Task: inverse folding
């Protein structure tokens, strides 16, 4: 028998599991969400520096370590989406830039994600969209506080 808030907690857990099953952040054209994320950050970095970005800059933007990013960049390079090359001013640095194909995939992904969330906004309406955003921000805040308590 479920007592008190246990039922409500179970309902929240079930709702999160349902959301996870929708794969709203699913892959585009067979690329993993992590690979697409790297492409987004390379594109963002290229907006700041036309020479491209370094793996350490990508990892910093993503909040992960360079060894996490390196195989993703290598995979994207193998698929013709990015190029890596030595910086002309500092040969120790390896820079990464999108190829035309990588830029096209990034633009397509951005459009798909934007369309998906605009559709959700239209479906929910103004008030519920604002409520959902507020609630998700609170969920994030709660989870961050829990993470801090666990790490203390």
Result:
């Amino acid at each position: 028998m479920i007592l008190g808030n246990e039922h409500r907690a179970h309902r929240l857990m079930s709702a999160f599991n349902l959301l996870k099953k929708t794969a709203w952040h699913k892959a585009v054209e067979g690329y993993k969400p992590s690979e697409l994320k790297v492409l987004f950050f390379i594109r963002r970095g290229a907006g700041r520096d036309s020479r491209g970005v370094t793996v350490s800059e990508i990892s910093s933007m993503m909040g992960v370590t360079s060894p996490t990013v390196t195989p993703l960049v290598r995979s994207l390079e193998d698929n013709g989406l990015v190029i890596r090359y030595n910086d002309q001013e500092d040969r120790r640095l390896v820079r990464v830039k999108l190829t035309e194909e990588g830029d096209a995939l990034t633009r397509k992904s951005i459009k798909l994600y934007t369309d998906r969330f605009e559709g959700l906004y239209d479906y929910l309406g103004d008030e519920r969209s604002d409520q959902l955003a507020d609630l998700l921000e609170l969920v994030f805040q709660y989870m961050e506080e829990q993470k801090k308590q666990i790490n203390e």
